[in-house]
## 1
Amino acid sequence: MSSLNKKFPRLMPRPIVKGMKVADLIDGTFKAYNGGRLAEACRLFTEKMIAGNGLVGMSLTGALTPAGLGCSSIVPLIKAGLVDWIISTGANLYHDLHYGLGMNLYAGSPFLNDVELRRDGVIRIYDVLFDYDVLLDTDAFVRHVIQGEEFQRTMGSDEFHYLLGKYVAEREKKLGIKETSVLSAAYQYGVPVFTSSPGDSSIGMNIAAMALRGSKLLIDVNRDVNQTAAIVYGAKSSGATSSVFILGGGSPKNFILQTEPQIQEVMGIEERGHDYFLQCTDARPDTGGLSGATPGEAVSWGKIDPENLPDCVVCYADSTITLPLITAYALSKASPRKCKRLFDHREESYTLLREAYFKHGQVEKIEHRTDLAKKPKRGRSGRSVSGTKR
Amino acid sequence: MSSLNKKFPRLMPRPIVKGMKVADLIDGTFKAYNGGRLAEACRLFTEKMIAGNGLVGMSLTGALTPAGLGCSSIVPLIKAGLVDWIISTGANLYHDLHYGLGMNLYAGSPFLNDVELRRDGVIRIYDVLFDYDVLLDTDAFVRHVIQGEEFQRTMGSDEFHYLLGKYVAEREKKLGIKETSVLSAAYQYGVPVFTSSPGDSSIGMNIAAMALRGSKLLIDVNRDVNQTAAIVYGAKSSGATSSVFILGGGSPKNFILQTEPQIQEVMGIEERGHDYFLQCTDARPDTGGLSGATPGEAVSWGKIDPENLPDCVVCYADSTITLPLITAYALSKASPRKCKRLFDHREESYTLLREAYFKHGQVEKIEHRTDLAKKPKRGRSGRSVSGTKR
Amino acid sequence: MSSLNKKFPRLMPRPIVKGMKVADLIDGTFKAYNGGRLAEACRLFTEKMIAGNGLVGMSLTGALTPAGLGCSSIVPLIKAGLVDWIISTGANLYHDLHYGLGMNLYAGSPFLNDVELRRDGVIRIYDVLFDYDVLLDTDAFVRHVIQGEEFQRTMGSDEFHYLLGKYVAEREKKLGIKETSVLSAAYQYGVPVFTSSPGDSSIGMNIAAMALRGSKLLIDVNRDVNQTAAIVYGAKSSGATSSVFILGGGSPKNFILQTEPQIQEVMGIEERGHDYFLQCTDARPDTGGLSGATPGEAVSWGKIDPENLPDCVVCYADSTITLPLITAYALSKASPRKCKRLFDHREESYTLLREAYFKHGQVEKIEHRTDLAKKPKRGRSGRSVSGTKR
Amino acid sequence: MSSLNKKFPRLMPRPIVKGMKVADLIDGTFKAYNGGRLAEACRLFTEKMIAGNGLVGMSLTGALTPAGLGCSSIVPLIKAGLVDWIISTGANLYHDLHYGLGMNLYAGSPFLNDVELRRDGVIRIYDVLFDYDVLLDTDAFVRHVIQGEEFQRTMGSDEFHYLLGKYVAEREKKLGIKETSVLSAAYQYGVPVFTSSPGDSSIGMNIAAMALRGSKLLIDVNRDVNQTAAIVYGAKSSGATSSVFILGGGSPKNFILQTEPQIQEVMGIEERGHDYFLQCTDARPDTGGLSGATPGEAVSWGKIDPENLPDCVVCYADSTITLPLITAYALSKASPRKCKRLFDHREESYTLLREAYFKHGQVEKIEHRTDLAKKPKRGRSGRSVSGTKR
């Protein structure tokens, strides 16, 4: 007889009953396969990632805000202080504006006749529908806002989204609506929002067109790279954990992960990598869809310490199912945290990283070390990389 | 301005709050993409499939019982009268025996060292673990039971599983456990359980080996084909609807769907096909993984009436996530139904179908009709096929 | 500096040039990810599976014959003696009949209007189109043939398909066509063809309906389980290797793999399992779509010896792409083999297995052994299971 | 009888024979499912996209260059003049440097022990292996090069990659190697290479770190947005077609598609959208993995004219399989084209677009038009958008 009973819990689910709460269903019946991973994700987020005031970064890809996950899940997580910083595709932030500006989106179907939709001036994102005017009005809002004086300079995307969020919040207030928009909530709660591909979305397209007309607005990509690393470094150097909550994949995933190699490998500052890793995705490593970002693969890069592998959870399922479940679980099981308002401290954290870079860092090739097994767990190290270095 | 607001509901989710119940979360926040499909699936099952005492057949593929979904979801659905008949892979029924026989399975991990597991005599099904003895003891139970007199003949798989379920129920009673096994619950509630591939599982393997030793037990595949068609015909001819709830795909999926073409095309009896279609799968039509079974494709076969397409829902997500959610939703929103105990009526329904076949059916080639558009909705028809005809 | 160069080939592809042959493209440029797996699959098949006159079994799922892979790939492999036995879904054999009976299928599109198709009497399998008459005429052929005297009994599916194939071959001859049908080629070259789910397809449906009209034809599932095990046992006990070439998954996959546990675990005959494992699929282990059948997972079951893991290749890609490539590679790189004509020896191999079972086998619980590490590589063993035991 | 034979080719593949060439295999046996799509992709590329000197843009995501597809496929396509401009992830360009700098990558396995790899200083990208020094040396190369005077300014990513490619080409020459690197080949043949997420990769990370040390290099995202639109506008306004060849998805996919809405919607210049669309991906629309970018969905946005839908091909398969096949087909079936050297004309095309914008464009909200059905095929139009507008 093996000693399975000493190492693993017995798999004996509870029968489902009428009126069950989300957290009870997850704890009682999600036991194996992706259901098991989802339960582990809920517990990882609730018991480890947000514990001890740990830093939580979230990356957003896929049509999350069009699907209403901004209002239902991300804004409540921001309000509860459970998400500290965000990297998003431009598309998610552009479509978030529709909600913040009080426009109407509709729950349609993926099986409609697109030729008829086009004739009727209806735009479709999979099964989300809205009038063509929603695009035009949102574009007009962006173009109008960015003509303001405060936008006439080179700035990080966090700063740009903060300024934009201020105008969304104003519009929300004027319309008598609230908690509809990620950008507005992020502004109000001081949550920095970055984009890894600033030109890639209607927001970036309008900024670019206005640049031809004399606008001085330009997103400073270098600042974004260093500022995101500064956020992680600020947390880690203060003794807090750093966690990533990755919805989908794409360049936001890579951008949130590369903060650690930026600190360690490129800047040469000693650090040990993200502590907790939670991903909901449908991409697969073997096709290259998850290239470089499975927790297992990351061990070879030193992105993740093998000791932390049990704290890495990948759930292969649609974020439109997993995010509401994880949010409901976390809000039910954990207490709200005080918002860190990291945006308010962007200059301090940036300065802290730059000083560490100048003090410890180097631009020369770091001497090669293969005897990593012998390095002390938290000692001096030329290389204890973490995150995605691509 | 389009008239979207007249045709579709506004997509405006509710913010998630502490202590939320499953049904409220699904109705309030699952609005688009597979989340939207899952919410539609919940409502389709609860508001249409089980309404008016409609017939509900369920097909089981993938490692559902090893993952604990027998105990958590399928048994409660059987008890509540919400599932009337079942087609399963042999593997799901074999592993269901472990639960019914009081054996221990463990919630492990997919990332264990299989060489070490083997050395320690531990069996792994993805992330479900158990001792090798569990296999040997389950095999011994099957071999012992099928040596009984009542098993010494050719019979349908529904009859075989009913007899087997009786012994599982006895063992459960002796062990002082209950509601652990699909086979036991199906026996107790008169739910017929078929398998589409009777030789394909440890159960079938033990039956085959015992046949070499003189056992007379043989599964009558022809009876299964006709009996499953009889169940559907019995419901439809009495005016009830017939629905399929498909978990995964594979041959159980096809077997549950082919009941309609068996009635209409092969037997030549007038019928109009399954009314509601609900599938949770990760297979894709373009790779052939869903060959022939998407609702859209089925329209060309006449398997599904185009008018019923809105009542066909496919949710691309893992059954270990979707089945508990749908079960919790249904048990919360719907009242239990009186069990139909279809097994008790297997001879009557079989006779009813045979008589209809001899009366109306034909073995000659059915005359070709292309002018299907003109046929009356419920009138006489040589071809209003439904289900998968492969 | 590591010693990578001693263990692995340098990854340096050849530039693609005009007029390149398939085998050169695969060897020269398919180096990593699923491309790399496909190249490994080609070499595994060509250099190991068919070497030394090893036994090669193939399992067929997904719409392979409708897509034309019967004519293009499977028939040429049978003719060249590179496939010795087959397990197929019923659907693949049913649609194979269309080709063998000289009917017309068309290369259409998956994006057609199914309502219009149905109105026009056109059947669609994803992007394959044909007239409704094709179904009716094929059904009529099956019903006509199985009324013959030779079909009036219980028989294995290999025997049934052999008899059916004879009539297809006759029809081919009469029509002046050849090498269009898997069933016909299998008949001509003595390749046994089984189905794991005999009731699940239009063939099984017509057999079942005719049973109501007095036909005595019944597929003997027990014989199929034992006969498939006998084929593998025959090869292995003569010193040859046994390989599986799995297209897709489903119950044919399991049925081909379970031959080994049938021999070892259920019959208690010493054996060591399939030697080479090649699978092209789009199913995934984590969703249960590949439940129990990844080579890695199989190690814990003892299905595959850890020493053979390098000889297990899974390529996650559509069989409509991979099968022609593997076939072209194998036919280009390997010489044809003399056909084994296993069907002609079905009684001998069956008798051989039965005798071994009666001599060595046991029906009692096999004593539990965990100290598998110590067992001799080819010595006496109560458990050296291989294949899928579900 | 339907008229299928008038509308579609009969599906009758050729049997595969020894020594078959790639193009013959594809034309003769790739008939349905993703195999069929791949054959359509080959013909779309060869017969339409590159015909009439049409513009071909390619987007690169997933680990293509690590897998050797740079050397094997992309460089030969560039040399043959079949790819005119490129948008890539930073990772593909970073790993391309290893090849151009003569470093060694190895064809390994995805199943290695990452803890041991890390101990030995080996980096793993799925199944591609290399020494940690490869990263350090590549970083050092980037940092050294960008300290040059010509890099001390704000510039588009096309210009940056051109300058970088010059140094790679120099290194190749010094090392006596050639045609190993996409960046080098793009430099030599004047193919502009953009990245949509300039901060997201080791290249961007090193640029950002050097910015802290006084480097003046900053990627001008606005210029990239407008320059890519200018390339498309230049082709279309000269009467040529514009095609996209999308490998994977992600932000490069969106960036290549958004060129059309940038011209039409944001700049208000009349245009009609990309003419041909070819994508190889494993992402799925229903999970949001393909959000907004299926050809069908794009019709509702006006991104693609419904009349062009037959010219949109999506093949769901791994680029490591499809790209070599498409490349071999195209090089075999088509003649090389004279390279367009678009990089040499970047200022002219940029000026042309800006002038059109100032002449025809507008920043006010474009009046809403729903009666799109009536608009003339090539007439004046406020909205005939094409591409992804997110």
## 2
Amino acid sequence: MEFLDDIKVGARTVLGRHTFTAAEIKAFARAYDPQPFHLDEAAAARSLFGGLCASGWHSVAMWMRLNIDHQQRADAARRARGEPVAELGLSPGFRELKWLKPVHAGDSITYASEVVAIRVSNSRPGWGLITFRNTGTNQSDELVLSFISTTFLQRRPER
Amino acid sequence: MEFLDDIKVGARTVLGRHTFTAAEIKAFARAYDPQPFHLDEAAAARSLFGGLCASGWHSVAMWMRLNIDHQQRADAARRARGEPVAELGLSPGFRELKWLKPVHAGDSITYASEVVAIRVSNSRPGWGLITFRNTGTNQSDELVLSFISTTFLQRRPER
């Protein structure tokens, strides 16, 4: 990550894109959300979703995967350029998670994050809190999920 | 599920308990949250968590698994007694998810749900919205996570 002091509210990052296959939708559902419309095409066709779709927990967990992959790639590039890398701290949680459209088998979801707030931590010197609005958008440009996350982020040591 | 009309605010259900093994913590992390403190004991020992711990997305996905298992067991018992079963509808989302303590390898988490609000839907006749406060508590009786969920639930047909 960049240091807290070098980030501006409004900055938006496309984290990556993922296509959800039927096989991985069913594998996640068997482990964490075994409802018929996440497990079986015929049952899903009869359900209010009209077809096999991913657990909402699966579609949001994939945001986390692409977020981590993106941060790790960006940090490796910073190190390769000889630049310092800011440490990300704990996330106290998230809020306002909305599942707005189903994610069906074959859908490609583009995940992004936009900085919506930055503040210096009063309790932890050298750290601040950064708040993102995170989204997933499908191949028809429809928003399928959004949520707000906050995480601790290191401040620039020399400032 | 019971029908919306038969549920009272304050009703609390223990959904079940799950012990997180190191192997499953790493398997979830490889797929959805590949950070060192979820993947590797030595790296985790050096991290601010002090030891291998589950992704927050893993600990909350397991709430969903135990919730579904509980509902399916309870519905099967209702059918065996010849009782009707209410249909659960879509969940528009979640709010106020808090990860309060790490879930370390070997921790046993008891998941529970408490009804905090019930209202009849104006837009969908025959349905209502039920809101739960969901929690996970470890073997030392410490709250490790909580969040608020809302979902559509069928009303009793004859009322």
